[in-house]
Design a protein that fits this description.
Glycerol uptake facilitator protein, single chain, mainly alpha, globular, 0% strand
């Protein structure tokens, strides 16, 4: 039971850190700078070994079936973390952040499911590359640069990251059946994207 609680707690903190990155992004007009600062979330998650679903799902190929439980609990923790921070931010003076998030959310909800899925797959690929490089790369510059470049790439490309979007939906107060459905599509897309990249990596980089 303790390990499941640990998965939830580590997932919760990962959700908080992604939310902090999201808050910074909402407050910075320059998208390039905003996406760079957003990287703080993934970087600290990797450094503190917290459980971010999109950073872990690609490793489903090299783990036992019980790993699925860890992933699901981590995802729940991610959601609770983003929901907590998003809800708290709605109580602050940052009304302009809420409006910016609302505009972002409306763009996503006005998109079609296939588009959301494809963009989520692309994001999943980047996330696996960024996290796996952090884990495997010995060169310090390469280890950290991949995190920053990966996060900047998925944001500037407009790809869909399910946990980041959980935060945007939370601060915008935009949860509905449609929103939940779209988030589930993003989760699926991120998962498939991660596995697509993890598969050849595991095939050709066995040690």
């Amino acid at each position: 039971m303790k390990k499941y609680v640990d998965f939830l707690i580590k997932g919760f903190y990962a959700g908080i850190l992604i939310s902090i990155g999201g808050i910074a992004y909402l407050g910075i007009e320059n998208k390039i700078v905003g996406s760079f600062i957003f990287s703080f979330g993934l970087l600290t998650i990797c450094m503190y070994s917290f459980n971010l679903y999109t950073g872990k799902v690609g490793y489903i190929l090299v783990n036992k079936i019980s790993y699925v439980i860890e992933l699901l609990i981590s995802l729940i923790g991610n959601f609770l973390g983003t929901l907590t921070i998003g809800s708290l931010m709605r109580l602050t003076r940052f009304e302009n952040y809420i409006q910016t998030a609302t505009n972002i959310v409306n763009t996503k909800l006005n998109d079609n499911i296939l588009s959301i899925f494809i963009l989520a797959v692309m994001c999943g690929m980047i996330m696996y590359i960024a996290v796996n490089n952090y884990k495997k790369e010995n060169d310090v510059i390469g280890k950290y640069m991949t995190i920053f470049m990966g996060v900047m790439a998925f944001i500037l490309c407009g790809f869909e990251h399910c946990v980041a979007n959980m935060f945007y939906f939370s601060i915008a107060g935009a949860f509905s059946l449609k929103a939940i459905g779209y988030l589930l599509v993003m989760v699926l897309g991120n998962s498939i994207g991660s596995v697509i990249i993890a598969l050849p990596y595991n095939m050709y980089n066995k040690k």
